[in-house]
Amino acid sequence: MVSTMLAEAADRNQVKPLMQPKAIIAPHAGYIYSGPVAASVYALLEPFRDTIKRVVLLGPAHRVAFRGIATTRADGYATPLGRIEIDKAAIESLSSHPQVMQLDDAHANEHSLEVQLPFLQTVLSPGFTLVPLVVGDATSDEVASVLNQLWGGPETLIVISTDLSHFHNYETATIRDQATNLAIETYSPQKISGADACGCRPLNGLLTIAKQKRLNIDVIDLRNSGDTAGPRDSVVGYGAYRLTEEAA
After folding, report:
1. 167 dihedral zone (left: phi>0; alpha: psi -120 to 50; beta)
2. What are 211-237's pLDDT values in tens digits?
3. Full-model pTM
4. Which of 34, 81, 116, 203 is 20 to 30 A from 122, comparing alpha carbons?
């Protein structure tokens, strides 16, 4: 399913400029619903499959309430496509950040991270490492400081996992998601709440540092479950974005 969605997305993306993303934003629902939207931005990574060696993955906490940003003691994440080793040194480098804590419970059943992994395993060369972070109640500046610590160079990709609005009818969701889309394009984290994006905290942290570092933001796809595989009386919104660094 992932491979088919990526192939279809590659056909749609043929007119998009070839630029290496420093960060991407992708949705995290069931693949039949959000997979085509996620594939739209993941397909853009394939030309850089041998360049990207480390993925910093941030998603919201759906199951466990906590203050701060959670790391894990685990050594790796396993999917049906294999095992991804965790960059333990990168996690240890965050020890000076008081908002970062070790909380395995936050990772145990958190789908916002897990559903991104098969896409990454398909578009990147084997052997890349992972820095998985579950974001609880954390400020945009707290997330941005962690991202700055892990920024790295072309070898490091940042992935923010978030869906957009939840459970409105199709017309209402389209209007709300267009407003959120505008806030993303204009680096306006103060305009995005949990009602607009379930991953608002990691998303807003990325937008904060993206503005500081003058990243370019491209909208790759913006749809909802009513466009993909669901009814239109109650939909979930999905957006896919590419963020690139300005050329020197």
Report:
1. left
2. 999 999 999 999 999 999 989 999 999
3. 0.97
4. 203
Domain boundaries, the chain: 2-10+20-244
Query: What six digits make up the tokens of 23?
Result: 């960060």
Angle, alpha carbons 192-205-172 (nearest 5°):
20
- The model's pLDDT over 167-198, given as tens digits with 9 standing for 90+, comes to 999 999 999 999 999 999 999 999 999 999 99
CATH of domain 2-10+20-244: 3.40.830.10
The CA angle 51-52-54, to the nearest 5 degrees, is 145
DSSP class of residue 72 equals: -
- Residue 46, classified by CB atoms within 10 Å of its CB into exposed (0-12), middle (13-18) or buried (19+), is middle
- Return the structure tokens found at 145: 């400081």
Band of pLDDT at residue 15, cut at 50, 70 and 90: low
∠ CA 207-210-215, rounded to 5°: 135
